[in-house]
Amino acid sequence: MANSKYEYVKSFEVEDRLLPCTWVVVRIDGRSFHRFADVHGFEKPNDINALNLMNECAKAVMEDLTDIVFAYGVSDEYSFVIQKASNLYKRRSSKLVSVIVSLFAASYVFNWHTHFPDKKLQYPPAFDGRAVCYPDDSILRDYLSWRQVDCHINNQYNTCLWSLIKAGKSKDCANSELKGTRADFKNEMLFTQFGINYNELPQLFRKGSYIYRKKVQNSTANGTQISRKSSFVVTIDHGDIIGDTFWKEHPYILGAEE
Ligand code: DGT
Ligand code: MG
Ligand code: MG
Ligand code: MG
Ligand code: MG
Fold this sequence. Notes:
The chain is of the alpha+beta class. The chain has helices at residues 33-39, 48-64, 93-115, 137-166, 171-178, 183-194, 203-207, 245-249, and strands at 23-30, 68-74, 77-82, 127-134, 209-222, 225-237. Strands 4-1-3-2-5-6 form a six-stranded antiparallel β-sheet, with helices on both faces. It starts with 22 loop residues before the first strand and ends in a 9-residue tail after the last helix. The chain binds 2'-deoxyguanosine-5'-triphosphate and magnesium ion (4 copies).
């Protein structure tokens, strides 16, 4: 049925197609997770179960939306990188963001009980989301580095803060003790006062998590013939993504020739 008299209302819709041929990053972030973490008694500063749940949700999003080539997560946030050439939802920002955010939130509720078998979900969590275009690989790498540096700075600060609080200091007192201090001071404080070697804390806490489609070679023997095929396995890891090493080992993620 074409053209009812009501069709004109479509003209009120705004165009929100993201720039073509650019990396699209959709970042989602837990809404008021400060409160959510308190209500659900998350371990401070890092709750392994909560982080694993975030990772499982991000993996579910990546497995569903194959145009996502990489994801990086820390705390209550996750960034999803959609390949430059993608035409998913005609690159409409509102569609991409709403599908990713709702799939993530639904997965969070769906998978809650496997990570917190003894804790009842007290209320439905929500996530916000936004999409940003980055025009080239180097700026995309800088975006991801920005998030991983943020992870490090926050984790180092929070590790010190909660060590002081667990040792009996008030939150205000612990905050003022740390105010304006440098990284080496914080590492020294953790080591001398609390016997914590910062660099030996789990990579999950210090570096966050990334998910990518790892290329694996499968060899199958058929008589004397050996045929090799490669496939991609969605993989979670917690290493450094600021330096070149990871990207040189997996050049296919950003689409460069091997
Ligand atoms: P927003 O994002 O503006 O709605 O507000 P929040 O409260 O979500 O603030 P945000 O996203 O800047 O900070 C994340 C909060 O989530 C932070 O206050 C502490 C909480 N959080 C995230 N991961 C953990 C965790 O593993 N353990 C604990 N205890 N809290 C966590
Ligand atoms: Mg926020
Ligand atoms: Mg948040
Ligand atoms: Mg956050
Ligand atoms: Mg529809």
